[in-house]
Amino acid sequence: MHKIVIVGGGAGGLELATKLGAQLAKKRLAEIVLIDQNRAHIWKPLLHEVATGSLDTSIDAVVYHAHAAKHHYQFCLGRFVDLDPERRTLRLAAAYSDEGQQILPDRTLSYDTLVLAIGSQSNDFATPGVKQHCHFLDCAKQAEKFHYALLNQFLRINQSDQPQCLNISIVGAGATGVELSAELHNVTKLLKSYNMGNMKNEQLKVNLIEAGPRILSALPERISEAAKKELTRMGVRVREGTRVKEASSSGFITSEGETIDADLMIWAAGIKVPDFIKDLELFQLNHLNQIIVKPSLQSSISDDIYVLGDCCGFKNEDGSWVPPRAQSAHQMADKVRENIKARLANKVQKDYHYRDYGSLVSLSRFGAVGSLMGNLSKKSMFIEGHLARIMYVSLYRMHQIAIHGWAKALLVVVVEKIAKVVRPKMKLH
Ligand SMILES: Cc1cc2nc3c(=O)[nH]c(=O)nc-3n(C[C@H](O)[C@H](O)[C@H](O)COP(=O)(O)OP(=O)(O)OC[C@H]3O[C@@H](n4cnc5c(N)ncnc54)[C@H](O)[C@@H]3O)c2cc1C
């Protein structure tokens, strides 16, 4: 039977595995194998909520083995490290327990069709000290690590006899930096409900540092302005046009020589595809290590390999690259599904066209800002406040529908609402 291997069960890969499971594997037309280095999936745009404790991964994550069993595909735990396109095999590194004991050996898997959907990671642009001193929000583990560090700071300040401030500096004012800044203010406000009232919102000092002239530079100016206004109202210090040249154990040093003190530092300034893809020396890559693909989303080295999501380098007709966003991963997953099915039926491959439906940036419970693209014209409509917040949440709901189906997604939402009544508003452990 034709074997389709998907590497990466994120925003795009998991949706693809679910749909191909239903449309091919259930009818025994193909075997679908999903590989991921983690055991559970959490939708990446929610990681800033994991980092602040607004979201609990033990409740909200989708466990791959259980999901695979219900959706007719197989799940294989492993980290993809190497590829042989001629033999149509890929290699997974050995897996170890936290104690260093080997759980799974180094393995080689064969495929007939391969889909690479491994996403991206933060780009530190080789800035000295960043790897050693900064937190990143690339996966649930890193977000949880930041969460513990944040809780420890809250505890320290709450129990101190002297009033103290908590300085948090975030480099990069894209969606991640902006959403995290707002979420930090949200959870600090909740502390008094949990007997930690000595740590007050006024003691939280968030510096949002952006090298470019404005925050959310990839979005229309009006959105940047609205987000900046709201963040400033919350108490976030927005520092545009500030380039960081180094990170130390006590803060960031700017190119002007200023030190921005920080108890906690987060680096969220841009993305790149992990360097091992470059080290494979197989693919043609762009400046972010993204794999350059044909219009059908097939790699230029082999038609058996499709690439989607953040790790895919796709040039639009106007010469711009498709942005690394959840909506791009979702659209590409749909096109790859169509093209794989067409290939199995000996039909022609269709070209992918990116459609920008607009962008929304969450400002936690304080609202959201964003733009929606019109269907008839290319004009975008600016939205903010409660309506924008509803639209923002509905993006996650659409992902839940894609991976669970309507009925189960509805149940998941009901369970989430009930859990909100019985569990604390933020994760405190
Ligand atoms: C904090 C944050 C907020 C964001 N907010 C938004 C937003 O508001 N709107 C928006 O559109 N986008 C947002 N994004 C971007 C969005 O999350 C990504 O564009 C989207 O998740 C990309 O989907 P993907 O399927 O390509 O990769 P991912 O969703 O990142 O999935 C990649 C998967 O591959 C797995 N993997 C990686 N390497 C390997 C390997 N070597 N072997 C095996 N498995 C591997 C990972 O474990 C992961 O499960 C945000 C990102 C972050 C970090």
Defining traits:
429 residues; alpha/beta; FAD/NAD(P)-binding domain; 3 domains; five-stranded parallel beta sheet; four-stranded parallel beta sheet; 12 helices; 26 strands; globular; binds flavin-adenine dinucleotide
Describe the fold and architecture:
This protein has 429 residues and is of the alpha/beta class. It folds into three domains: 3-120 and 273-344, FAD/NAD(P)-binding domain; 130-267, FAD/NAD(P)-binding domain (3-Layer(bba) Sandwich), CATH 3.50.50; 358-422, no CATH class. 34% of the residues lie in helices and 24% in strands. The strands form nine sheets. Strands 5-2-1-11-22 form a five-stranded parallel β-sheet. A hairpin with a 5-residue loop joins strand 8 (95-96) and strand 9. Helix 11 (385-404) packs across helix 12 (406-422). It is globular, with a radius of gyration of 22 Å. The N and C termini lie far apart (47 Å). The model has no long low-confidence stretch (mean pLDDT 93). The protein binds flavin-adenine dinucleotide. Flavin-adenine dinucleotide (FAD) binds at residues 7-13, 35-38, 41, 44-45, 47-48, 79-80, 117-119, 137, 175-176, 179, 309-310, 324-327, 329. Residues 7-13, 35-38, 41, 44-45, 47-48, 79-80, 117-119, 137, 175-176, 179, 309-310, 324-327, 329 line the site of flavin-adenine dinucleotide.
